[in-house]
Known about the structure:
The protein is α/β, with parallel strands linked by helices. It has 20 helices and 15 strands. Strands 8, 9, 10, 11, 12, 14 and 15 form a seven-stranded mixed beta sheet that branches. Strands 1, 2, 3, 4, 7 and 13 form a six-stranded mixed beta sheet that branches. Helix 8 (about 175-180) crosses helix 9, helix 10 packs across helix 11 (about 250-265) and helix 11 crosses helix 20. The model is unreliable at about 10-45 (pLDDT under 50). It comes from Cryobacterium lyxosi. This is Extracellular solute-binding protein. Pfam families: SBP_bac_8.
Amino acid sequence: MTPARVPIGSTGVLTRRSVLAGSAALFGGAFLATGLSGCAATAGRSGAEQLAFWHLLTGGDGIKMAGLVDEANADNPGFHVTQTVLTWGTPYYTKLAMASAGGRAPDVAVMHASRLPGYAPGGLLDPWDLDVLAHYGITEDSFPAPIWEACFSGGELFSVALDAHPFILMYNTEIAAAAGVLGSDGQLIDIDSPEQFVDVARKMQVVTGKHGLSYGYLGDGAQMWRLFYTFYKQQGADMTLTPGENVEVDEDAAVTSLEFMQTLLDDTIATASGDYATALAEFVNGESGLFFSGVWELPTMTAANVPMDATPIPTLFGTPAVYADSHTFVLPHQDNPDPARREEVYLFVSNVLKNSISWAQAGHIPAYLPVVDGPGYAELIPQAHYAMAAENLNYDPQAWFTGSGSDFQNFFAENVQSVLLNKTDARAGFQGFVRRLNVLLSKPNPVR
C-alpha cells in the first residue's frame, strides 16, 4: 500500500518547506495516495509527475538501477522517473555542480557520501525533510550509524544512503581448504594480527605456486588509498582536514600501514608491481588465494564461477575498521522546487530503498536495515558473510577536495606509489602527501 502523501514541511513551523507546502494546494490532488499500475501505464498516465534522475552507475550496477527505476515507476503511477547516466568521476560531479548552480538541476541524483562535504556547504544541495522521510519509513534507526552519520552536513541530512560498498577480502575456498586455513564452518579462520595474515597468505602461495594474495595498485590511487586507510584506521588513527590549517595526522600509524603494505608486496605473497586488471585476472584464474577488492567485483566472480567466499578485511591492528563509500540520493539545489514533484521524489527514493535486495545481488550492502535483516538477504552468500562491515565503515576524511572520483586519491598515489615500489622511504613518501594536503587546505572550496 502506497502511503498517503504528507505535505512537505507540515510541522507547524514556518519554514521554506512549509511555504512550499502551502503552494502545493494549487496543485489540487497532487498529494493524494495513488494505486498500482504497470510501467507503460505510468509513463503515459495523464498528470504523472515527470522526475529527472541523474546517476553515474554503469555496467552491472547500471542494469540493477534501471530495474529498480522500472519497478518504482510501475508501482507508483503518480510519477515517472527518467534516468540520465553520465560519465563516472570528475565529469559527473562537475556537471552536477554546474546544473545545481545554473538552475538546471535534476529532481534527484546519486552522489557518493564522501563527496558531500564539497557540495552541501557550497549550497549545491537541498536538505531532506526528516519528517517526510519518516512518513515513508525512512528513519535514523533504519540505517547503521556510520552510514546515517555520513549523510549529514552542518546538522542537516543532505543525502539518503542506498548502500555501503566497502573494501573487503575475497578468498578462494578450494585453495584455502588445501592450505588448511578454513575453520570448521567452512569460512576463513579468524585473523587478528599482521603476522598471522602473512602466514595465511604464504600457506596459500604454497598451494597456488604463484602468489598468496592479489592486490593491484599500480597507477591506481583509489586502490592504494583504500588499503592504506583501512590499516590506518585500524590503529585508531584519525586524519583531520580543517580549512586554513595544516592537516592533523598520526604519522607513525601511516608509516606502519605503508610498511606492512610493502611487506605484502614481496613478489611471493603478492606481486610487487601489479595493476588492478592483473590482480583481478590472477585471482579469477586461481593463481592466488586472497584478493583485496571492493564488493563491486562480486558479479565478476559469479560470472567466472570462482569457488569463493568473502569477509570484512581482518582487524590486524586492534580496531575494527574498513574503508568504504556509499551511493546516496541527493536533492540538487533548485531555487523554486516544484512541491508536487519533490513529494514524489521522497516516494521514489523510499521505494528504491525498500526494494534494494536486488541491489545487494550486485555485491553492495543495502543501507536500509529492514532489507539486510530480512530473510532474503541471509540467503545471499557471500554477501551475508561481510554485511557486518557496515558497522565499521570509514569514509574519506572530510574536505571539499576528498571523496570518490576526486583528485585526492591521485595526490596520494603521486607520493605513495614509489613507497610501494620500494623506491621511497615510507615516512618521506607520506610526508610528501601531507605537504600536498596542506596546500589544498590553504585554498577555498571553489564550488561555494
